[in-house]
Write the structure tokens for this entry.
Amino acid sequence: MLFSFDPLATLSGTLVGFVLGLIGGGGSVLAVPLLVYVVGVQSPHIAIGTSAVAVALSALAGLIGHARQNKVKWPCALVFASAGVVGAAIGSSLGKTFNGQHLLLLFGILMVVIAAFMVFKKRADGNPDVCLNKTSAKSLLPLLLFNGSGVGLMSGFFGIGGGFLVVPGLMAATDMPLIFAIGSSLVSVVAFGTTTAFNYALSGLVDWPLAAWFIVGGIVGGVFGRRLATALAPHKSLLTQVFAFIIAVVGSYVIVRGWQNLGG
């Protein structure tokens, strides 16, 4: 029942929300491992479908805040997200048919790759005035469509928000500054998460009560994460490096567990 309190789901959601509030994109990648190995969800597919619901709603809350600060490049964000929705629909359909343990093993590998990207990614100032219009469409549109569909495909396949992929994808396509890429990426995270959640829900692969408690925890964790981020703003780079290490460790654990399960 919806009102049967699930402490592990709530605490897991709190952790994901806290990390998202603290350092931004990347935190949602912890949702599936937490649901499988902490909450105890037996089916990797249900964990993916359930986490997609939570990630989409959490991203929507963040998008509202960034939009109020005028940190969203709407034309670029909408085109990227539209292309990504097609990719997410295809990716989530493929993910549902993929062996659950194989999917977890690949997920662990992806986490290690994400950790490496977070450590070695380059910071760039970018062009704050970039805008998708009739003049720039010839150069920007193909890159937005190509990058968006590719990121959406991976997001749907693994059931993740994909913010850590959308941000560099947007920056590579448009040369927009990081702060605008973060805000604009949330349009895609909402769209990809909703598409993946809908696709999994059609197959009955979403645990709605579990998702509700995960979201409640995420809201609470996000509040504290954003407050701590403000206090530790000068050390955000160090926090990102520490979190990358945590993702690498969790990803390695998922790989080992997945390999053991495949070995029987």
User: Anything to note?
Assistant: The first helix runs from residue 7 to 23. Residues 76 and 131 are 7 Å apart (CA to CA). The radius of gyration is 17 Å.
